[in-house]
Inverse folding.
């Protein structure tokens, strides 16, 4: 259950972050509302994950690494941003680091 809630929290945070770019500095209403809803949902669900007993270091490492990867891909898909080989390697290193944190308990 913790990982399911964390997954939904991550998706909500990614939606909020991508909407932040689309909001044009909070000058566009719909994306601005998505920012608020996405971040509120993400933090409420993250709080529940922590309440259920997942260590904060593990939760945040998973949150951050998967969020970074998904936002990078979303930036490419929705905003035409470039995802270079160096960036892909960096994302891989971040994910590898999370795996080390996760297995270090």
């Amino acid at each position: 259950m913790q990982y399911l809630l964390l997954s939904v929290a991550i998706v909500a945070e990614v939606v909020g972050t991508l909407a932040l770019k689309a909001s044009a500095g909070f000058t566009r209403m719909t994306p601005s509302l998505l920012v608020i809803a996405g971040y509120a949902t993400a933090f409420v669900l993250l709080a529940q994950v922590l309440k259920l007993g997942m260590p904060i270091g593990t939760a945040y490492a998973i949150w951050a690494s998967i969020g970074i990867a998904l936002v990078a891909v979303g930036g490419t898909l929705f905003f035409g941003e470039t995802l270079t080989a160096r960036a892909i390697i960096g994302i891989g290193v971040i994910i590898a680091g999370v795996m080390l944190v996760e297995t270090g308990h």
About this structure: The chain has one domain: 2-103. The chain has a mean pLDDT of 94. The radius of gyration is 15 Å. The chain is about 85% helix and 0% strand.
